[in-house]
Design brief:
This protein is an alpha+beta fold. The chain has a domain of 45 residues. The chain is built from one helix and three strands. It is flat, with a radius of gyration of 19 Å.
Length: 80
């Protein structure tokens, strides 16, 4: 049997972390291909909420995808 190499996956942010001002992570809910989903507490609204955080390991892939988009389409479908 041949071992399959696994890429290092960064762990979820721990409870208590503030990924953005005004939001405190209560716990990790799920992980998708590029995002982590967290249950959070909003200081401003004084309620629980859910936020999605782009993992740093996926940042380069997303930036490369955005930079490869053509900002000026060849043909316009709108009025001239």
């Amino acid at each position: 049997m041949t071992a399959v190499p696994q890429t290092a996956v960064e762990p979820p942010l721990p409870a208590g972390t503030r990924p953005v001002p005004g939001y405190r992570i209560l716990g990790h809910l799920a992980r998708t291909g590029r995002l982590d989903l967290y249950g959070c507490r909003s200081d401003e609204r004084a309620c629980r909420c859910v936020i999605e955080v782009l993992r740093s390991s996926a940042l380069a892939e997303v930036v490369d995808g955005c930079l490869s988009l053509d900002p000026w389409p060849a043909a316009s479908s709108g009025p001239a």
